[in-house]
Amino acid sequence: MQRSEAGAMKILTVVGARPNFMKAAPIIAAINKHNRRLFTGSAGRQELQVEPIRHILVHTGQHYDELMSGSFFNDLDLPKPDIHLGVGSGSHSAQTAEIMKKFEEVLFAEKPDAVVVVGDVNSTIACALVTAKISFDSDGSRPVIAHVEAGLRSFDRSMPEEVNRILTDHVSDMLFVTEESGLQNLRNEGVSLDKIHFVGNTMIDSLLQFKEKAEASTILEKLALAREAGKNGGANSGTRYALLTLHRPSNVDNRDVFRNIISGLEELATDCPVVFPVHPRTQQRIREFGFEFNPAGSAKKQNGGAQDSRNAREGILLTNPLGYLDFLCLMKHAALVVTDSGGIQEETTILGIPCVTVRENTERPVTVERGTNTIAGTRSEAIRDAIRRQLSRNIGNGVPKNWDGRAGARIIDILARSHYEKTSYRPSPVSNAVPFEV
Ligand code: UD1
Fold this sequence. Notes:
7-stranded parallel beta sheet
């Protein structure tokens, strides 16, 4: 079923939407490192006989503007995509179908040995499905499909991402899992154990790599959060503030739900500024619903609880979507993060920042069990109570198993071993020799 030509391995990685970029960057870095080891001769004698991995980066264009895509390539040192499908926005079906049509042409032209898809966005399922159905010859040979961040389940099929996760996992050949719940979910769904690899979390690889660099960001100054150094006792930032992100259709597309969430934040917003970088979908809804907020950096000064709740929304300060390093800097110094994002639950866990998730569920239970996350739901009082609890809780940051910055290297190690074993090209495959706990 899969390709079996001997020779250099060719990996094609797909990115499409904002949360893909930081998950793919460590995989590309691991390929580069693998190839450098071959060229510098630091590999063993047998390994030197292995050819470098060839890599193709495909951007579907699901997210296309500078704020949602372009700036991430600079911040994460990602190479320019080799191929850009330029798909853009559309309904789920139109977007998925457009990606599939264009990606099929790419696969026929490139004939890679492996297609790596990450996360749970429409680009992920679209490209996995094309790869599962393609046939390069009369034997039905096709690339191996590797899904990075496999096995996560919210058990809420009204989320488009949940449908994408389940379908992608079930057409994939190699499932790279970030946390134990992922292993368990895949076992429960009858996925064969030899397909599953518990490698850790590439999003955390990026976080650990760029955490120090993010300190050079000037976002705190730009948002006027650094001027009153020390006054309110916030970390290094000076002003104590909270950070908010909201973009799930179930939270922002319904006026009442959106309003309830904002009401749940009003007490917090009288206590400290709540910085709200606004996703394009959410920006559209704010305009449609006629909600009013202040732009960040220009709001009235907060005065520690004295502000009256009628003015609470003045404490919620809007910005455009932010780049990776600016957002990471803001997360690191926040007193609290409120979010409906999946990845931010994981990032705050590693940073040791309390997180309140405004959803009814999470597909990332390790962030609650071992991390700093709590699931609040979307009712105003529940959100307010969760915020109070999280702000008074003594937060320690547990590190989930294998979230050690080496997931990308493990993935490339496993992919390369599997390729060279299958092709019998070399008896001893390249190993990055990355240990992991199992
Ligand atoms: C997508 C992913 C979601 C992920 C989120 C991160 C799916 C099903 N959803 O949702 O899992 O958490 O990205 O952002 O794949 N838009 C722009 N500029 C862009 C991209 C989008 O202005 O670069 C606007 C468009 O008006 C579009 C809207 O944002 O209609 C929503 O974008 P879309 O890609 O459809 O889904 P997201 O809500 O971003």
